[in-house]
Amino acid sequence: MTARPRGAAAGARQPGPTADAAAALARDRIASLDDLKAATMRCRECPIGEFATQSVIGAGPLKARLLLVGEQPGDQEDLQGLPFVGPAGRLLARALEQAGIARDAVFVSNAVKHFKYELRGKRRIHKSPTQREAAACLHWLEDEIALVQPPALVALGAVAARSLLGRAVPVLANRGRWLPRADGRQVLITVHPSSLLRGPPEAREQAFVAFAADLALARTVVRQGR
Ligand code: URA
C-alpha cells in the first residue's frame, strides 16, 4: 500500500508489505463505510489510484436488500466522490424508477474503486480496468458486501459479473438470469447502463425497456424488506 511517487512507472514493484499482506491488514480494519473510504483512498494495490482524484465507494442505505455493482467510477463520480452520478447514473436511476425500484432503497457501488482514464487533450476518457486491476480491488467490494449484507446483488455488465461470481459470465447470454455466488447470494445479470448510451440512437428506447425489465426482476427482493 506504499504510495508510488507521481510519475513512477505504473506497475513497478514497490518496497514494503506485499499486496496480499497489505490487503489482509486492510481487511481487518473495515468496520464501516468511513473505514472503507479511508483505506481505498490510500490503496495503491494497482496503479489506477495514483491518477484518480479520490476513491469512490458505494452509497445507499446500509440495510439495503439489493446491492447494484457497476464497473468503475466515471469522470463525474471521480470528481464528486459518489457512484453513478454522471450520465450512466442518471440512466440507471430512470431505469430503476421504470422498474418500480426506489433508487434510495438500493446500495450502489462498483467493482473498481478508482477512475481509470486516458487523457486526450484536456478530456479524461474512460478506460476499462484490466482483470488484474479488478481482481486487486475485489476485496474492497467484498468488504462492502459484508457491511451491507444484501440477500441479492445486480451485476451491471461483464466486469461486475466477473468480480461477483469469480468467473467470466457472457452478459448478453445471461442477462435477466439469477446466478448463485459461492456465499449463496443471488446475482442478477444485466448490461451496464453505459452500453445503452453507446448504442445507436434508434435502438436506445428498446434497449432501455429491456434494461428496466431486467432490473424489475429484482423488485420483489427490495419490496420483501418493507
Ligand atoms: N459507470 C460505472 O460503472 N459506475 C459509475 O459509478 C459510473 C459509471
Please tell me about this protein's structure.
The protein has a single domain, classed as Uracil-DNA Glycosylase, subunit E (3-Layer(aba) Sandwich). The chain has 10 helices and 7 strands. Strands 2-1-5-7-6 form a 5-stranded mixed sheet, with helices on both faces. Helix 4 packs across helix 9. The radius of gyration is 17 Å and the shape is globular. The N terminus is likely disordered. Uracil binds next to helix 4.
Set out the fold topology.
Layout: H1 19-29, H2 33-42, E1 66-70, H3 75-80, H4 87-99, E2 107-110, E3 117-120, E4 123-126, H5 131-148, E5 152-156, H6 158-165, H7 171-174, E6 178-180, E7 186-190, H8 193-198, H9 204-216, H10 219-224
Helix pairs in contact: 4-9
The structure holds uracil (URA).
> Strand-and-helix sequence, N→C?
HHEHHEEEHEHHEEHHH
Tell me the number of strands: 7
Q: Please outline the major beta sheet.
A: 5 strands, mixed
Mean pLDDT: 90
Count, helices: 10
Overall morphology: globular
CATH topology annotation: Uracil-DNA Glycosylase, subunit E
Q: Which regions are unreliable across 5 or more consecutive residues at pLDDT < 50? A: 1-17
| Gyration radius over CA | 17 Å
Q: Roughly how much helix do the residues carry, as a percent range? A: 40-55%
CATH superfamily: Uracil-DNA glycosylase-like domain
